[in-house]
Amino acid sequence: SVIPDYLAEALGDVASDTSGELAGYIPELAAADPEHLGAAFATVQGEVYGAGDIDTEFTIQSISKPFAYALALSDRGFAPVLASVGVEPSGEAFNQISLEDGTGRPLNPMINAGAITTHALVGPEGLKPAERVERVTDGLSAFAGRRLRADEAVCASEMEHAHRNLAIAHMLRGHDILTEDPRTVVDGYTRQCSVLVTARDLAMMAATLANRGVNPLTGQRVITEPVARQVLSVMFTCGMYDAAGDWATQVGIPAKSGVAGGLIGALPGQIGIATFSPRLDPHGNSVRGVSLFERFSSDMGLHLMGVP
Ligand code: GLN
After folding, report:
1. Among 259, 277, 287, 290, which one carries the catalytic annotation?
2. Any binding-site annotation on 158?
3. With respect to CATH, is domain 64-193 assigned 3.40.50.880?
4. Binding residues for substrate, per the UniProt record (predicted)?
5. ipTM of the complex
6. Is the CB of 285 under 6 A from ligand 1?
7. Catalytic site residue 256?
8. pTM of the full predicted structure?
């Protein structure tokens, strides 16, 4: 097929760009190989095409956020989740300590404040923290169509330096947005971020969103269509943090990035796309990943608002 050749050529063109930095605030991530580079496409029919490092495992990090949001919406329903986490773009960094005036509600589920709150909303009310982590891992696995597991070393490394997320969680607890021990919630959220995936997995997870909730590989309905629509909408407006506007205009695909270097895009009704390259721009988005998506979008006319 011509698609792997196209992908290999695209990787070759961005390979020389060594700008950007590894995520320094998580020591285990700072020790990663910065040269990894891969890209994968998964169609809603279940075909996967890829080039480069598409079977190398790395931690999912913030790319877990839209999927955990999907699980919370499924498990609790829209109203309780929306009462705790908004859907407004923040225009701020992913780890900004910002909550809505008055209510203390995080602006959206893609920034850490919203994602920490969302983690606590996965599963039925009253679920034990360890069971909730189990529910999150099972859910992420259903999106991927393969059993996933966490990287304990990355998890422990992040927990030792999680002061900022703990501060956010304590503020959320102060506003009664969180009702549990903040440390327990951050521990579970960090575990969620430490789940290991490959670019192939991420493309399939994105394809499940693109396929309106049905995993194209396993045929399992993981979430309902309204939940898929909600998640894709929030990815479109908030998935790239303070670069979300640039992304929406330049690339025009619902997307989510992670600080281990993963990046996904989901094109409704068509494909899931994933790239992996660990060096990050100042927003915390993969430098070569952003370049690849810009190229895919313009070469194939993927911008949701049409070709120029
Ligand atoms: N675990 C990371 C954190 O909470 C995830 C951040 C990210 O991938 N942008 O800081």
Report:
1. 259
2. yes
3. no
4. 62, 112, 158, 165, 189, 241, 259
5. 0.97
6. no
7. no
8. 0.98
